[in-house]
Design a protein that fits this description.
Elements lengths: L2 H21 L10 H14 L5 H13 L12 H11 L8 H7 L2 H9 L2 H11 L5 H26 L5 H29 L1
């Protein structure tokens, strides 16, 4: 998320989360300077910019409910807010720093050339952590199984006997692959600019 889309997202966070809570009496954590608090709010704006308006309003209710301090009016920790936000609306893969940076690294290049890019992407989204060597072996095995499945479905499609369910699976797989390639391409476009 960049440019106007990011600015619009930040404004959505400000209007639907931050301003209602501040107007309602939410205050900065004791011992945190005004400058640190402003940075905290700016970080929330940037990190939550992907969220829809209604989800941000729901998040405001959660933040209010779990406010800290003796009067229950102190902003909770950023990590808590981010965890609640993910439960309300999953971060799109293109917005997840982990997924984006991992796919744009040498590991992503290796996955692309090794034929397990989609499976790596799915693992990163599901687990939220880079795979170790043992897990990577399983990802490669799953990719090989999926390659055979794709070939079988494509063969059945050519012969006119592929089931709608198989065709939907193949379409989803190819859409996910395009999404992964778009994430990798975004890095190449930034490097070329």
């Amino acid at each position: 998320m960049e440019g106007q889309e990011l600015r619009d997202g930040k404004e959505r966070v400000r209007i639907n989360l931050i301003e209602p809570l501040v107007k309602g009496g939410m205050v900065r954590k004791r011992g945190r300077s005004v400058e640190e608090h402003d940075k905290f709010l700016a970080s929330l704006e940037a990190r939550l910019a992907y969220m829809a308006e209604d989800r941000l309003q729901a998040l405001a209710e959660v933040v209010e409910r779990y406010a800290g301090g003796p009067q229950k009016n102190v902003w909770p920790a950023e990590v808590s807010i981010m965890n609640w936000a993910r439960r309300l609306q999953e971060v799109p893969a293109s917005e997840s720093r982990l997924v984006r940076s991992y796919l744009q690294s040498g590991a992503g290049d290796a996955a692309k050339s090794g034929g397990y890019l989609v499976e790596l992407f799915v693992y990163l989204k599901r687990i939220g952590a880079p795979p170790n060597d043992y897990v990577l072996k399983g990802i490669r095995e799953e990719a090989e199984d999926n390659r055979r499945k794709r070939e079988g479905i494509e063969r059945d499609r050519e012969e006119g006997r592929a089931s709608p369910r198989d065709l939907a699976w193949l379409q989803g797989y190819m859409d996910t692959r395009r999404r992964c390639l778009d994430i990798i391409k975004a890095k190449q476009e930034r490097a070329a600019a």
